[in-house]
Amino acid sequence: MGAAGDGLSVLPDGTPCFVARALPGETVRATPGAKRGDGRAATLIDIVASSPDRVAPPCPHFAQGCGGCTVQHWAPAAQAAWKRDKVREALSRAGYPDAPVTDTVTTAPGHRRRADLALRRGPGGIVAGFHRAGSAEVLDIAACTVLDPRLVDLLTPLRAMLKRLPALRREGSAVVNLLDTGPDLLLRTDGSLAPSDRAMLAAFAAEAGIPRIAWALKDGPAEIAAQIGPATIALSGATIAPAPGAFLQASPEGEAAIVAAVLAALPAKLTGRGRIADLHAGLGTLSIPLAARGRVAAFEGDAAAVAALSGAAGRAGVPVTATRRDLARQPLTVQELIAFAAVVLDPPHAGAAEQVALLARSQVPLVVYVSCNPAALSRDARVFAQAGWRVSTATPIDQFVHSAQTEAVVAFSAARPSKGKAW
């Protein structure tokens, strides 16, 4: 299975061939097509001999080419083993062939609390859904096995409202976060909002039970278009007021799995200075539970997230100090890192090359790396390997079920913690 979830074969001339919807061990007929990376994509014609791990896809839109899922046709146990292997391979390429990788922690479908919907206005009305695999075309969806049903239930009234909204001229998007107070909608359109549009959004918010609707013109800054109540969510017991469209872990269960793996990688109690740095802290998904182990210094580049975390920590009385800092341009220095007994690092998809280079040279005894990209994990882990660090634990987490996305929590321990560092 290729990294993107396509069956991987080899053409007679040795060129890799990626066959969407094919599974390992199968014999298939397929038509090779356009170049893709160092190989060629192929279109599946039929299956001559199927894998015993092939199952009936649970979602009707999978057969229509919805790009939201890639491996619904593969048995869950096989998906979990594949994702574990992706983490093992990433660490092996980095120089850790014997890294202790646990079984994959898999979350249940139907719990995804965030959706990023593409919107199109056409002759038949409003199309709201996900892109077809490998295409800019938007597939109109009526069901989704991975989304929380409360988000699916919002689709029909959302289409009806958008059909009457002049601000959506041809295309836009809708990002919906399911908060504790209800769906939180960020609507982007290709036309400006008239006063009558704002009145329509306010009426829709009241009818659909949406506490807040934010709006932005294309990729411009968002503003609150309608608000009928608070928009908050509890993260590890602290009430956060996120900005519209803010990043959340995909599901409550996925969040809990990541938090549990991070805490399990730390010693029961940090003594001495007892300070923990949480880098790329976001809204404080990890900062707040980490505060039960020691004082937390959270660093995040997004100003709205820093403000939300600071307010939540203050109200909850937890020892978290949040600082705005662009860690790609201004990573914590080796000298600054001396203050911490542990560092938790949850970088964006591209990884954290600038910060990892300094962490590997630092006197911090433990770094817990939360990865959402095995390729970036492998690159960054190689820096730790070359500096003599070891992998003490690695936990694959699948909160994007039926997709190729793989997450992991990896604990790197310094080969020789500096003298005087207390644990």
Automatic annotation (TrEMBL):
<keyword id="KW-0408">Iron</keyword>
<dbReference type="InterPro" id="IPR012340">
    <property type="entry name" value="NA-bd_OB-fold"/>
</dbReference>
<feature type="binding site">
    <location>
        <position position="346"/>
    </location>
    <ligand>
        <name>S-adenosyl-L-methionine</name>
    </ligand>
</feature>
<keyword id="KW-0489">Methyltransferase</keyword>
<feature type="binding site">
    <location>
        <position position="300"/>
    </location>
    <ligand>
        <name>S-adenosyl-L-methionine</name>
    </ligand>
</feature>
<feature type="binding site">
    <location>
        <position position="249"/>
    </location>
    <ligand>
        <name>S-adenosyl-L-methionine</name>
    </ligand>
</feature>
<dbReference type="InterPro" id="IPR010280">
    <property type="entry name" value="U5_MeTrfase_fam"/>
</dbReference>
<keyword id="KW-0479">Metal-binding</keyword>
<dbReference type="InterPro" id="IPR029063">
    <property type="entry name" value="SAM-dependent_MTases_sf"/>
</dbReference>
<dbReference type="GO" id="GO:0051539">
    <property type="term" value="F:4 iron, 4 sulfur cluster binding"/>
</dbReference>
<keyword id="KW-0808">Transferase</keyword>
<dbReference type="GO" id="GO:0070041">
    <property type="term" value="F:rRNA (uridine-C5-)-methyltransferase activity"/>
</dbReference>
<dbReference type="GO" id="GO:0070475">
    <property type="term" value="P:rRNA base methylation"/>
</dbReference>
<feature type="active site" description="Nucleophile">
    <location>
        <position position="372"/>
    </location>
</feature>
<protein>
    <submittedName>
        <fullName>Class I SAM-dependent RNA methyltransferase</fullName>
    </submittedName>
</protein>
<keyword id="KW-0004">4Fe-4S</keyword>
<keyword id="KW-0411">Iron-sulfur</keyword>
<keyword id="KW-0949">S-adenosyl-L-methionine</keyword>
<dbReference type="Pfam" id="PF05958">
    <property type="entry name" value="tRNA_U5-meth_tr"/>
</dbReference>
<comment type="similarity">
    <text>Belongs to the class I-like SAM-binding methyltransferase superfamily. RNA M5U methyltransferase family.</text>
</comment>
